[in-house]
Specification:
The chain has a single domain, classed as ABC-type transport auxiliary lipoprotein component (Rossmann fold, 3-Layer(aba) Sandwich), CATH 3.40.50. Strands 1, 2, 3, 4, 5 and 6 form a six-stranded mixed beta sheet that branches. The protein is built from three helices and six strands. The two termini are about 45 Å apart. The protein is of the alpha/beta class and about 180 residues long.
Length: about 180
């Protein structure tokens, strides 16, 4: 009887492994959806269609850092790249979301929207594209002395933008290289 259960368990395990491999199951980070001839990627400065100065640098640098950490492809200049990441920051919003004591803003939400694509240089074909990327982060203001409060609120807003840039970079890295 014990031998019967062992055979049954082996059979179920074998069928499960076959089924998982047939449906394309893989561990995140182990498969690339890039064409095999794309080994070098360029990440030029994102375009900024917003009124927020310098935001394009933050998003470009965050993506460069993420690709450098990942080490799956080499990041190079556009002239020697196999593919190019094109990024456009299309919208920046800083909206109050909570108030304290009537009309005193207590918390804001920063929302950034982007369009990003990966273009193969050889034939200008689109390898990957997302025209509707939207991320947000909330931050608190300060209510002490007006000048100190403005400085703290600005620092908190800048930290929220950095957080969004890092979150977007991680997601883009995953989407571009792993096809999720």
């Amino acid at each position: 009887m014990n031998n019967h259960w062992i055979k049954l368990l082996k059979y179920i395990t074998a069928i499960s492994l076959l089924a998982l491999s047939a449906c394309g199951y893989h561990l995140a980070g182990t498969v690339s959806s890039l064409p095999p001839d794309v080994k070098k990627i360029a990440i030029p400065l994102f375009s900024n269609k917003t009124l927020r100065p310098d935001i394009e640098n933050q998003f470009t640098n965050a993506l460069l850092d993420e690709f450098a950490k990942g080490k799956k492809v080499v990041v190079v200049g556009e002239n020697v790249a196999d593919a190019v990441v094109k990024g456009i920051i299309t919208s920046f919003e800083n909206t109050p979301i909570s108030y304290k004591g009537g009309d005193v803003i207590q918390e804001y939400r920063v929302t950034v929207r982007l369009e990003v694509s990966l273009i193969k240089k050889a034939d200008e074909s689109v390898i990957w594209k997302d025209k509707n990327i939207s991320y947000f982060s909330d931050y608190k203001t300060a209510h002490d002395i007006a000048i100190a409060a403005a400085n703290i609120a600005e620092a908190n807003r800048d930290a929220a933008i950095r957080k969004i840039a890092v979150d977007v970079a991680r997601q883009l890295y995953s989407n571009i290289l792993e096809g999720f």
